[in-house]
Design brief:
single chain, 415 residues, Neuraminidase, 2 domains, 4-stranded antiparallel β-sheet, 13% helix, F-box domain-containing protein, F-box_dom, F-box-like_dom_sf
Length: 415
């Protein structure tokens, strides 16, 4: 038998890097002082993060306020039956998902995005629903950074932006799309607290976009696409659908069209792609009927939800492409359980080879305020097996963010 104490830290690190999951690494870290010493080293953890995807731990749910306010939010950890449940419970008891560490009053802040353990929130300042005060925060370590306002010379290009959220004049109304860019494993370093924020506004006949880098600490302009899809929507304006992401690209359905607005964050440029061939014959009433996810071989998988059918069933179609110009390949189709046809409310995200599906209340609970709930299920993309992920008693959820991360014992500050 090998004496663990006789092994050098370098050898132990090479062994522990091969631990199959963060869950197993967490167990190893509390089983032996030598393991704990190696695992707690920031350099080791950066290497481990680069090799292992963060597991899904729960869903962060946002809900509207009664009578028109900002509303509220809560974190729903994975159910006890899910493998991530112990890690999720540890996170829920350690993090401040109420964001009480932000400048008061906390009720003014609205969650706009969640990615890589960070949250992006904003609040209305000087009555503007477009140029808001923006904060990036880490709820586990209770850290935050306020972004500087967009400079006047850049802001001058934004003229009467259309509402992208709300629009009723209440505190949840926003005339901008603002979100975080994902970290790249290629950029993992000893001090991986850098981030990039994208700010977008749809004005009459044009798209205006800026990005902020925590390294340069400056806002810069992005070149928008010139396309008739942005200029012909003069009555209702251009409204962006659900934001999807895969391999460094973000995708939005342009409302009431079969076109994608695409932002490639590697090149920092936009394009518009016609995806009507895969949507023909399917009623696309909501933008969350189409979702993107990453494949390990560099391909992007597209999931199209055909839900508004005469038989009231829901069928998921799986396509894949390597480049936009390629012919998209139909990989698979799966029919969801019969009773899900009327409960299906879209796919909220993808992680670790799973899709995460949001379902509304069962029919028998619609008239019972106490028994109503929203459920989230996982779908294994390889085996097409379904499993319960988490549940919330909130019967009105406006936004759902899949939260992926490491347990507190293995986490590093992100801000």
């Amino acid at each position: 038998m090998v004496d663990v104490a006789a092994l050098t830290d370098d050898v132990l690190a090479e062994i522990l890097l091969r631990v199959p999951s963060p869950r197993d690494l967490a167990r190893a870290s509390v089983s032996c002082s030598s393991f704990r010493r190696v695992i707690s080293n920031p350099h080791f953890f950066r290497r481990f993060v680069a090799l292992h995807a963060a597991p899904p731990l729960g869903v962060f749910c946002c809900y509207p306020a009664l009578g028109g306010g900002v509303g509220g939010s809560q974190f729903q950890p994975a159910l006890p039956s899910h493998p991530s449940a112990p890690l999720a419970r540890a996170l829920a008891s350690s993090a401040d998902f109420c964001f009480n560490f932000l400048p008061p009053p906390a009720s003014d802040w609205l969650v706009r995005d969640s990615r890589d353990g960070r949250f992006l929130l904003d609040r209305v300042r000087d009555g503007s629903t477009a140029f808001t005060e923006v904060a990036i925060c880490d709820p586990l370590f209770r850290r935050y950074r306020l972004l500087p306002p967009i400079p006047n010379d850049l802001a001058a290009s934004v003229e009467n932006p259309y509402f992208q959220r709300g629009g009723d004049g209440q505190l949840q109304s926003r005339s901008s799309e603002i979100f975080l860019v994902s970290r790249s494993n290629d950029s993992v370093s000893e001090n991986d607290t850098t981030f990039t924020v994208i700010w977008m506004a749809c004005c009459r006949g044009k798209l205006v976009a800026f990005f902020y880098s925590s390294e340069s600490q400056q806002w810069c302009a992005l070149s928008p696409p010139e396309h008739y899809a942005l200029s012909t929507r003069r009555v209702m304006g251009v409204r962006l659908g659900q934001r999807n992401h895969a391999h460094g690209c973000f995708y939005w359905m342009l409302a009431l069209t079969h076109r994608w607005l695409v932002l490639d964050t590697h090149k920092m440029d936009f394009s518009i792609v016609d995806i009507s061939p895969i949507l023909t014959g399917r009623a696309m009433m909501f933008s969350n009927q189409i979702t993107t996810l990453e494949s390990s071989n560099g391909w992007t998988t597209i999931v199209v939800s055909d839900v508004f059918r005469s038989d009231r069933r829901c069928i998921l179609y799986f396509y894949a492409f390597l480049n936009f110009s390629d012919r998209w390949q139909l990989l698979n189709r799966i029919t969801l359980p019969d009773e899900w046809g009327y409960r299906f409310r879209g796919i909220i995200g993808a992680a670790d080879g799973y899709l995460f599906i949001k379902l509304d209340d069962p029919k028998e609970n619609l008239n019972d305020q106490i028994e109503r709930y929203v459920e989230y299920f996982s779908l294994d993309v390889k085996t097409m097996q379904l499993g319960s992920f988490c549940r919330t008693t909130l019967f009105t959820v406006t936004e759902s963010y899949l939260y992926c991360g490491f347990p507190p014992s293995l986490s590093m500050p992100s801000i």
